[in-house]
Amino acid sequence: MSALTKQSAEEWTQLFDERYKRTAWPYGSAVWGKKEWVCPDLRNESVVSMDEGGSNLFWAERFGRELGMNDLWVKLCGNSHTGSFKDLGMTVLVSVVRQIIADGGTIRAVACASTGDTSASLAAYAAAGGIPAIVLLPRGKVSTAQLLQPIANGALVLALDTDFDGCMAVVQRLSLDEGIYLANSMNSLRLEGQKTVAIEIVQQLDWNVPDVVIIPGGNLGNVSALGAGFEMMASLGLIKKQPQIVVAQAEAANPLFRAYQRDWHFEPIEANPTQASAIQIGNPVSVRKAIRTLERHQGIVEQASESELADAAARADRTGMYNCPHTGVALAALIKLRKRGLIDARSRVVVVSTASGLKFTDFKLGYHEQRLPEVNALHTNAPVELPNDYDSVRRAIDTHSGWNP
Ligand SMILES: Cc1ncc(COP(=O)(O)O)c(C=O)c1O
After folding, report:
1. How far is the CA of 327 from the centre of ligand 1 (A)?
2. Model pTM?
3. How far is the CA of 64 from the centre of ligand 1 (A)?
4. Nearest CA to ligand 1 atom 13
């Protein structure tokens, strides 16, 4: 940090703006454009990058209006190489591993336990860097798209008859073997990359800090990364205030929500099945870091039932989005906190959308066909099946009542 203070805040923002989304490799990546803040000792030739970050932060005008808000923004972290925010951290971890190997270190493979998105990201970056990857997934608990990603990228995919927490315990044992390098977010290299999402949000808002940021939480690495990004900007004089941070959890997997209600007294739970499968975690490894972050950011933890998360995702889809279930959890939290008056109508709020809705076809289809357990779907829009007949088509149009208002 003392080396970084040698440049002024204005010099940093100017440098970051000059590099943002340009082609001078590797600085066009929104992670590596902030390389001095992320991993300064890494040699550029070690970087494994697929142009991560730089995802859209858009003004959710219509959805905001429905909630009586005029300053609601959605940060689409799922618009990235492997379709989730995990790429922001994985580029850093895999680049460092590449440098360790180049310098003669003995790493046989990188390995992770995953609820789907981490393994997709690790497999892609390891393949790009020419490094063997092992992924441990809870069998039958990740979406088809997420399962296919590491398969396509040539990782050794191990589908275990357990849940995420079970996979995590096995990979932690595996990584005691010197040759197996742990790639889960308890490895702080991941968080160094993920913290850039905070910097990028502020950069996209012309170096202004939002009042509130809402983020879905599972293993709870991302929330501490977000907090670290905001705190680093404050330490280096780029910003003057900190946002309030809200973590949103599925009611079926809500250990942090329970801790929040008990004055941060945390106890692991067994997570129940939820459509928000990437956050079906009962014993989050980064819980302590997350609580410290929330204590410094007027933290709130909110939960969403299966009906609430599915309906929030679908309702926002009707305003042009295409939300994954985890983003649905964050949007449901927003709706509930607005109703309770804990988020003000005038606040500038950023919802972090963590993955692409395109990975969660079964969730979407199940919702519109009213097949999701515990979900009373209020915003369905099933296709109307018709014979090849002009009059039937006309009648269907004339009698349709489910138009977007
Ligand atoms: C889509 C999505 N959202 C949210 C999360 C939660 O992030 P974290 O585990 O850092 O809390 C994950 C992590 O697996 C994820 O894949």
Report:
1. 10
2. 0.97
3. 24
4. 278
Cβ–Cβ < 8 Å for 350, 330: no
**Cα-to-centroid distance, 9 and ligand 1 (Å):** 31
Atom number in ligand 1 closest to CA 185: 10
Position 88: which residue type?
A: L
Paired sense of beta strands 212-216 and 156-160, if any = unpaired
Nearest to 39 by CA among 180, 194, 179: 194
The two structure tokens encoding residue 261: 């209600």
Q: Measured in whole angstroms, how far is the alpha carbon of residue 358 from the centre of its chain?
A: 14
What H or E segment, with its residue span, contains residue 59? strand 57-59
What is the dihedral sign for C-alpha 145, 383, 76, 372? Answer: negative
326 lines ligand 1 (CB under 6 A): yes
Q: Which atom of ligand 1 is nearest to the CA of 78?
A: 1
Q: Which of 74, 88, 115 to mutate to test the pocket of ligand 1 (most atoms within 8 A of CB)?
A: 115
Q: Is 253 in the pocket of ligand 1 (CB under 6 A)?
A: no
- pLDDT, tens digit (0-9, with 9 covering 90-100), for 188-246: 999 999 999 999 999 999 999 999 999 999 999 999 999 999 999 999 999 999 999 99
Reported as a single tens digit per residue, the pLDDT across 174-183 is 999 879 999 9
- Partners of 159 in beta bridges: 137
DSSP secondary structure string, 181-200?
EE-STTSHHHHHHHTHHHHH
**Is there an atom of ligand 1 within 6 Å of 117 CB?**
yes
pLDDT band at 250 (very low <50, low <70, confident <90, very high): very high
Q: Do 251 and 328 form a contact (C-beta atoms < 8 A)?
A: no
> pLDDT tens digits, residue range 147-188?
999 999 999 999 999 999 999 999 999 999 879 999 998 899
Residue 274 has pLDDT above 70, yes or no: yes
Q: Which domains does the chain have, with CATH numbers?
A: 1-85+188-405 (3.40.50.1100)
Q: What is the pLDDT of residue 405?
A: 64
Burial 245-264, CB ≥16 within 10 A → b, else e: bbbbbbbbbbbbbebbeeeb
Residue nearest to atom 15 of ligand 1 (CA): 278
User: Sign of torsion, CA 80 84 88 92?
Assistant: negative
